[in-house]
Amino acid sequence: MSGLQVSKVLNNNVIIAHHPQHDEVVVIGKGIGFNRKAGDEMPLSSVEKMFILTNEQEQEQYKQLVPHVEEELIEVINEGILYVKEHSELPVNEHIQIALTDHIAFAMRRQEQGLVIQNPFLYETREMYPEEFRMGEYMLELIHKKLGVELEPDEAGFIALHIHSALTNQHITQVKGNSHLIADLVSLVETSIAYHVPRNSLDYSRLVTHLRFAIERIRRGESVQENASLEKLLKQEYPQIYALACELIILMEERLKESVYAAEACYLTLHLQRLVQKKEQDD
């Protein structure tokens, strides 16, 4: 057999099938189950714009999820995920099918019940993952256009985290953890220098980007070049800001469970001092 053989039709958009390489799989695609029955064969070429779940655990989770989600919503989510695949250079982890379907279906149920959950990390997520955020906004537009449901704009941030998780093969808890950590670091900076950084400003974008790259370097264990003379100068010239940079590093070490190169304090001090100068200009 060189194609798929239908084992069971779950609904118009989801079937269980036998795959020549992966044995039983779950196949998801627009109208894939329409007028099909067990035993029907499908050429693999016909599933180009469909999704095949090959992991047994992912398959089982999706099978349990499907009966609780409207067919129209499954179709719209598939269209959104296809958009992500077509506009991403990285492969998309198949777990996105379960994660996004479950999240969006729950978000829609919450909205029906009048329960609105604000996204406290919306600005951080938009700055950290601009492409994924744009895709999240596209999905919200798609849901509104196809289903007439207007989800809260905050949902674009939640969806963006799931997309980033699928593109980088990071667990969603780690992706969320990075956003939470950056929000806490920004809060510590603002409290320490008594300055609220405008969320739509270039200064905010620079700060979040710097912190994001620092976290990524730490997770990779990437070394940062030491500069003893620069460190000595910064300690002398900007003792309070250097101390704040060290506080940020301690928080990163605690949350990431990784050691941070001391040189990171120098780069943070330079960045934070520019922020302090901006505050003084605004005062």
Task: Describe, in short, the structure shown.
By secondary structure, the chain is α+β, with helices and mostly antiparallel strands. The chain has eleven helices and five strands. It starts with a strand and ends with a helix.
Description:
- This protein is an alpha+beta fold.
- The chain contains eleven helices and five strands; from the N terminus they run βββββααααααααααα.
- Among the domains are: 54 residues, Transcription Regulation, Sacy, Chain A, CATH 2.30.24.10; 110 residues, PRD domain (PTS-regulatory domain, PRD, Orthogonal Bundle).
- A five-stranded antiparallel beta sheet has the order 4-1-2-3-5, with helices on one face.
- Strand 2 and strand 3 form a beta hairpin.
- Helix 2 packs antiparallel against helix 5 and helix 5 crosses helix 6.
- The radius of gyration is 23 Å and the shape is elongated.
- The mean pLDDT is 88.
CATH superfamily of the domain at 173-282, called what?
Answer: PRD domain
How many β-strands, per DSSP? 5
Percentage beta strand: 5-15%
Quick one: CATH class of the domain at 173-282?
Mainly Alpha
Average predicted local confidence, pLDDT: 88
Supply Rg: 23 Å
Order of helices and strands: EEEEEHHHHHHHHHHH
Number of helices, counting only DSSP H or I runs of 4 residues or more: 11
Task: Determine the structural class based on helices, strands and strand pairing.
Answer: alpha+beta
Global shape: elongated
> What are the low-pLDDT stretches, counting only 5+ consecutive residues below 50?
none
